[in-house]
């Protein structure tokens, strides 16, 4: 019943009876719609927003029982209450009426008080039914939405405001329906002393967000620290109960007729101007969707915190392993960046790119087991020393271990000295036998080694380094590298120079 006047369909083939009903109902504010036969009644039920139907049993052609049956078998109209009018107060017709789905009966001649009382009672039941139905639909819609949020939840990409946008888009009134929904939604987000206010207005089938100013202290808009508050106010009491809030809304050209508010100590959502009275149910719906997002925000923050602790630990371990190495701490950051660039150019997934950027840092962690004398030796290594040096790949894999989060680091440590043509170590793997992370890392490590001075060579500039990698210099050869990785390098080589320069200037 969205229109303010209740519309009663009276169906009778006797014009006199229709006039009698009209005389009884119109003065009491009911809008009377009349039909003289079954098909006309069904047409009006279908096309006009009928709230209740008074239906004569004895109709020419299609009788009242059949009309009632058809109303009750129409899934869109079956909630319209039907009161059957019969001159025959016998049990048989009443049973037929009940079987046809009628909610109630009145007998001719009409008793005005009885007709009005029955209409009122059935309309009350219908209102409760409608409310229940709408509540169910809202719950079903919002729970599907909540499921979708959780299914697509990615803590790394989680942007709280985007989630709030989509929640508001779900609950705000749309041009196409949901008269049950608020017309305006106001959001307040408190961050220490600052509070940011946003308003959402429905524009057609969309909702538009814009910033707004609300001069409210945290006490009036937000809950006391640590607690959660749900309130709802209808027209009569909203101006009394939320004076400051209403005044600030007025300053923003919002006339408040009712409101539902959910607030925590740092977040507040106010849904304004529903097209009907608001109830505690509206407050519950609002709180459940918002709580879901607040929970996911908190989860996302915790996951990001754990991720950053994970990265920190990886780099700490990598730095520890380079204590006696000629490479500096910057080397591990740079190779991670080169690997990230190559991986992106090779169209690897975001997860892979993020993984290799961090886990590449551990490629030489096995050097922790290599004697400093070998690591720091300026002259040529003896065969035995070289044999020991090569072991850093195996030591690294052993240190990293078998945890699934570190599987990429493990593959990199083990395979970053393998060469595409099979001339590398420790296993002499060829081509795609070498994990892709290892093939990427091998080129990245070579680039950085060539750019930096070694005991056996000076530091080369970017162009010389590229020439050595792409064309070879006798020691480094192009077929050491995966051709696809080499092509990716050729395409983005200037960005390698950027990474190197940035790292050296910082
Ligand atoms: Fe290495
Ligand atoms: Fe390295």
Nutshell version of this structure?
The protein contains 19 helices and 11 strands. By secondary structure, the protein is of the alpha/beta class.
In CATH, the architecture of the largest domain is Orthogonal Bundle
Bound molecules: fe (ii) ion
Strand line-up of the largest beta sheet? 8-7-6-11-10-9
The separation of the N and C termini measures 69 Å
Contiguous low-pLDDT stretches (5 residues minimum) are none
The CATH topology of the largest domain, please?
Hypothetical protein af1432
* Total domain units: 3
How many helical stretches?
19
CATH class of the largest domain: Mainly Alpha
Compute the average pLDDT. Answer: 87
Number of strands: 11
Approximately how much helix is present in the residues? 40-55%
In the CATH hierarchy, what is the superfamily of the largest domain? Hypothetical protein af1432
Tell me the structural class.
alpha/beta
User: What fraction of the residues are assigned to beta strands by DSSP?
Assistant: 5-15%
Radius of gyration: 38 Å
Bulk shape: elongated
What string, H for helix and E for strand, traces the elements in order?
EHEHEHEHEHHEEEHEHHEEHHHHHHHHHH
Main sheet attributes: strand count, strand direction, barrel closure: 6 strands, antiparallel
Description:
There is one protein chain. The chain is of the alpha/beta class. It has three domains: 7-131, 3-Layer(aba) Sandwich (Rossmann fold), CATH 3.40.50.2300; 157-296, Beta-Lactamase, CATH 3.30.450; 322-505, Hypothetical protein af1432, CATH 1.10.3210. The chain has 19 helices and eleven strands. The protein has helices at 15-25, 38-47, 64-72, 91-100, 112-151, 160-171, 218-221, 235-241, 243-251, 280-321, 329-345, 350-359, 372-375, 383-390, 392-400, 407-415, 436-451, 462-471, 483-505; strands spanning 7-11, 31-35, 52-56, 82-86, 104-107, 184-191, 194-203, 206-212, 229-233, 259-263, 267-272. It has a six-stranded antiparallel β-sheet with strand order 8-7-6-11-10-9. It has a five-stranded parallel β-sheet with strand order 2-1-3-4-5, with helices on both faces. Strand 10 and strand 11 (267-272) form a beta hairpin. Helix 2 (38-47) packs parallel to helix 3, helix 11 (329-345) packs antiparallel against helix 12 (350-359) and helix 11 crosses helix 17. It is elongated, with a radius of gyration of 38 Å. The two termini are 69 Å apart. 33% of the residues are buried. The mean pLDDT is 87. The structure holds fe (ii) ion (2 copies).
């Amino acid at each position: 019943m969205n229109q303010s006047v209740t519309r009663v369909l009276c169906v009778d083939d006797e014009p006199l009876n229709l006039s009698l009903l009209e005389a009884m109902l119109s003065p009491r504010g009911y809008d009377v719609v009349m039909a003289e036969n079954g098909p006309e009644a069904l047409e009006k039920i279908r096309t006009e927003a009928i709230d209740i139907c008074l239906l004569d049993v004895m109709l020419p052609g299609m009788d009242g029982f059949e009309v009632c049956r058809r109303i009750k078998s129409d899934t869109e109209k079956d909630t319209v209450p039907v009161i059957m009018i019969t001159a025959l107060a016998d049990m048989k017709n009443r049973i037929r009426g009940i079987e046809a789905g009628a909610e109630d009966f009145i007998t001719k001649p009409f008793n005005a008080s009885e007709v009005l009382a029955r209409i009122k009672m059935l309309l009350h039941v219908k209102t409760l039914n409608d409310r229940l139905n709408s509540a169910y639909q809202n719950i079903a819609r919002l729970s599907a939405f909540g499921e979708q949020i959780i299914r697509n939840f990615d803590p790394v990409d989680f942007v709280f405001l985007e989630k709030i946008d989509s929640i508001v888009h779900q609950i705000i009134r749309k041009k196409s329906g949901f008269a049950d929904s608020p017309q305006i939604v106001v959001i307040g987000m408190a961050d220490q002393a600052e509070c940011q206010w946003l308003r959402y207005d429905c524009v057609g089938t969309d909702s538009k967000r814009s910033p707004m100013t609300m001069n409210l202290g945290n006490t009036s808009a937000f809950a006391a620290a640590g607690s959660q508050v749900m309130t709802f106010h209808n027209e009569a009491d909203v101006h009394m109960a939320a004076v400051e809030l209403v005044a600030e809304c007025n300053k923003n050209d919002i006339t408040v007729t009712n409101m539902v508010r959910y607030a925590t100590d740092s977040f507040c959502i106010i849904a304004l101007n529903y097209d009907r009275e608001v109830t505690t149910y509206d407050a519950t719906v609002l709180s459940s969707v918002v709580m879901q997002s607040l929970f996911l925000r908190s989860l996302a923050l915790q996951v990001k915190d754990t991720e950053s602790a994970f990265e920190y630990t990886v780099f700490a371990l990598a730095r520890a392993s380079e204590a006696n190495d000629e490479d500096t701490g910057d080397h591990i950051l740079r190779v991670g960046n080169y690997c990230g660039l190559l991986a992106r150019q090779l169209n690897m997934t975001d997860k892979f790119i993020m993984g290799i950027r961090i886990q590449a840092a551990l490629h030489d962690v096995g050097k922790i087991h290599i004697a400093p004398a070998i690591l720091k030796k300026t002259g040529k290594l003896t065969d035995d020393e070289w044999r020991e040096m090569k072991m850093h790949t195996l030591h690294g894999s052993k240190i990293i271990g078998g945890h699934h989060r570190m599987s990429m680091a493990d593959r990199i440590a083990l395979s970053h000295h393998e060469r595409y043509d099979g001339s590398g170590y420790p296993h002499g793997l060829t081509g795609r036998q070498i994990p892709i992370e290892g093939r990427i890392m091998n080129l990245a490590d070579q680039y950085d080694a060539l750019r930096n001075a070694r005991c056996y060579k000076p530091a080369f500039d970017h162009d010389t380094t590229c020439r050595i990698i792409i064309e070879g210099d006798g020691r480094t050869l192009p077929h050491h590298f995966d051709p696809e990785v080499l092509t990716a390098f050729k395409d983005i080589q200037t960005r390698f120079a950027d990474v190197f320069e940035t790292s050296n200037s910082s």
